[in-house]
């Protein structure tokens, strides 16, 4: 039975993979357990790794280091691919305020961490671990460990210990802050829903439709292309109904006459301006337009051909070549106005109006192959990882910091993933990844990372907590969690009048905490917390990774 002993307690590759698999399996199983509707989720993997390591189950140090770093790279790169398309747009309009508030949460946490370090004398490496656990940010933990290893060549377990001790109360502290702000301001969910709806109506940028009749004498006898150039709004005239000529597909060369009825698609906030410019609304619904000419069909076509990726609608010349109209483009659930300058991406769904034959021709040009879309696209994954590692290895010298700063194996791939997913289509690079594939990569990465961190930190964990002041770390972690959230939460509500549902997402997103987001969504009964979370998440994740490294490099 020697083989059994080697498999369970040896140092070979088989033993290492088995141990990792057991840790991840047990951790995920325990993560499904909820107490008062709250679960620590996959963080249980970390605690299972610590427990098994405490009882003597270890793995080869080289294999452990490789799997930990590879898991971290997969995790942060998948996050970057997910948030990249919306990263820069998150700074527009109200997003600037939300991101500034989230930045305040991040830096208040850093200031409090430094203060506790100077007052108590706890090593900054341990405090960074406590900070990462208190804000439930695993990439920050990985970045701190990587920065310390690059500086010293030594794996430091105390970083992971601080993280593991502070994490559980960190999750509770975030939810507690959300609840307390509600009671401090005596928030009524009904009022918040009403004000949110009013604000959404004012800001809506989604494509919508309207039927109107031409009454402006200045437009009589002008081509549709000329009309579009006269008003600084993006809109599409889909169909036109002449009194004598009947229903036609609106083309750029089509002339407008008095009394023509138009079916127009535009952004919601632009509708009133367009109506006032062209004429007046008429009570004619989409179904009535479709009944007028049975020869015309409206169909959604999926863009799956790589040749179309990154091209604008104007470059494809679909209207002139096929005699059809593209009225809107659906991207990630959002309907966009199909103006000529709109760049198309793999995975977009375009709404095409025309005859059956013409629509079929457009379908061949755009692809519309779901099978092709589901095929794995590994080029941007490994190209991005390679570029991310190169970027993460470049040293940057800053005054006052003794060691050059590197983005590391966490920051480099994260930045490259954001840039590739946002700008890749501009350079004909297909960056589309199905949500399921992205989620699989992300979960595998974080599971590997947490398992390895737990196994590495288990030795001496109990001794540290019981005999070396580890219990006080829990209190320090709670302060780091709770105080910044309450300060910024009160400012956001009192000064900036942020809607409470959005504020819930802001709080969860500033801590990059999925359990808090799940609680917020369940409590609010709408998707506004998710919107707030997604708005601040990319920048917050970026700052968490960089500040964790900066603290280690500045004080070690």
Which fold name is given in CATH as the topology of the domain at 204-372? Alpha-Beta Plaits
Rounded average pLDDT = 79
Our estimate of the beta-strand percent is: 5-15%
Spans where pLDDT lies below 50 across 5 or more residues: none
CATH hierarchy: architecture of the domain at 204-372: 2-Layer Sandwich
Outline, from the CA principal axes? elongated
How would you portray this structure in words?
The protein is α+β, with helices and mostly antiparallel strands. Helix content is about 60%, strand content about 10%. It is built from 24 helices and nine strands. The strands form two sheets. Strands 3-2-4-1-5 form a five-stranded antiparallel β-sheet. A four-stranded antiparallel β-sheet has the order 6-9-7-8, with helices on one face. A hairpin with a 2-residue loop joins β7 and β8. α8 (about 155-185) packs parallel to α23 (about 515-525) and α23 (about 515-525) packs antiparallel against α24. The model has no long low-confidence stretch (mean pLDDT about 80).
Fold topology:
Layout: H1 2-9, H2 13-31, H3 44-54, H4 61-87, H5 94-120, H6 124-134, H7 138-152, H8 157-184, H9 189-203, E1 207-214, H10 224-230, E2 235-242, E3 246-249, E4 261-267, H11 271-278, E5 279-281, H12 286-292, E6 296-302, H13 313-316, H14 318-322, E7 325-331, E8 334-337, E9 349-355, H15 356-366, H16 370-374, H17 379-393, H18 408-423, H19 435-457, H20 461-467, H21 470-494, H22 500-510, H23 514-524, H24 528-555
Antiparallel strand pairs: 1-4, 1-5, 2-3, 2-4, 6-9, 7-8, 7-9
Helix pairs in contact: 1-2, 2-3, 3-19, 4-18, 4-19, 4-24, 5-6, 5-21, 5-22, 5-24, 6-7, 6-8, 6-21, 6-24, 7-18, 7-24, 8-19, 8-21, 8-22, 8-23, 17-18, 22-23, 22-24, 23-24
């Amino acid at each position: 039975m020697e083989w059994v002993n080697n498999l369970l307690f040896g140092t070979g590759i088989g033993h290492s993979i088995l141990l990792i698999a057991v840790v991840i399996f047990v951790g995920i199983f325990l993560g499904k357990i909820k107490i008062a509707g709250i679960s620590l989720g996959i963080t249980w993997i970390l605690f299972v790794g610590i427990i098994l390591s405490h009882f003597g189950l270890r793995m080869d140090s080289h294999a452990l280091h490789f799997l930990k770093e590879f898991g971290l790279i997969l995790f942060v790169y998948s996050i970057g691919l997910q948030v990249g398309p919306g990263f820069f747009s998150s700074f527009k309009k109200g997003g600037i305020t939300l991101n500034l508030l989230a930045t305040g949460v991040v830096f208040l946490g850093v200031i409090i961490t430094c203060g506790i370090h100077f007052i108590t004398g706890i090593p900054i490496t341990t405090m960074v671990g406590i900070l990462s656990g208190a804000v439930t940010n695993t990439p920050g933990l990985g970045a701190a460990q990587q920065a310390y290893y690059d500086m010293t060549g030594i794996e430091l377990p105390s970083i992971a210990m601080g993280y593991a001790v502070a994490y559980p109360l960190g999750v509770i502290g975030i939810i507690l802050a959300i609840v307390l702000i509600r009671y401090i301001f005596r928030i009524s969910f009904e009022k918040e829903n009403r004000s949110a709806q009013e604000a959404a109506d004012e800001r809506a940028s989604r494509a919508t439709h309207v039927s109107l009749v031409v009454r402006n004498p200045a437009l009589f006898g002008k081509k549709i292309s000329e009309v579009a150039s006269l008003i600084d709004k993006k809109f599409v005239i889909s169909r036109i109904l002449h009194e004598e000529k009947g229903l036609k597909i609106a083309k750029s060369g089509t002339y407008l006459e008095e009394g023509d009825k138009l079916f127009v698609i535009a952004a919601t906030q632009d509708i009133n301006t367009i109506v006032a410019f062209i004429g007046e609304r008429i009570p004619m619904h989409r179904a009535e337009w479709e009944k007028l000419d049975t020869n015309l069909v409206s169909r959604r076509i999926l863009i799956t051909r790589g040749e179309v990726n990154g091209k604008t609608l104007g470059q494809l010349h679909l209207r002139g070549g096929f005699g059809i109209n593209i009225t809107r483009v659906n991207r990630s659930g959002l309907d966009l106005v199909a103006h000529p300058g709109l760049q198309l991406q793999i995975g977009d769904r375009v709404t095409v109006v025309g005859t059956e034959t013409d629509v079929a021709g457009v379908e061949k040009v755009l692809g519309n192959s779901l099978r092709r879309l589901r095929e794995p696209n590994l080029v941007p994954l490994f190209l991005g990882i390679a570029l991310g590692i190169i970027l993460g290895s470049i040293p940057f010298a800053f005054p006052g910091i003794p060691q050059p700063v590197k983005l590391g194996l966490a920051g480099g791939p994260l930045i490259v993933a954001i840039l590739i997913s946002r700008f890749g289509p501009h350079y004909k690079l297909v960056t589309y990844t199905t949500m399921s594939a992205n989620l699989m990569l992300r979960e595998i990465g974080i599971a590997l990372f947490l398992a390895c961190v737990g196994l590495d930190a288990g030795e001496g964990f109990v001794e540290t907590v019981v005999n070396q002041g580890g219990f006080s770390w829990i209190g320090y972690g709670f302060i780091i969690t709770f105080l910044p959230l309450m300060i910024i939460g009160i400012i956001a509500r009192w000064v900036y009048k942020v809607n409470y549902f959005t504020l819930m997402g802001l709080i969860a997103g500033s801590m990059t905490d999925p359990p808090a987001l799940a609680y917020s969504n369940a409590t609010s009964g709408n998707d506004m917390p998710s919107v707030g979370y997604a708005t601040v998440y990319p920048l917050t994740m970026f700052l968490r990774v960089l500040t964790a490294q900066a603290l280690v490099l500045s004080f070690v």
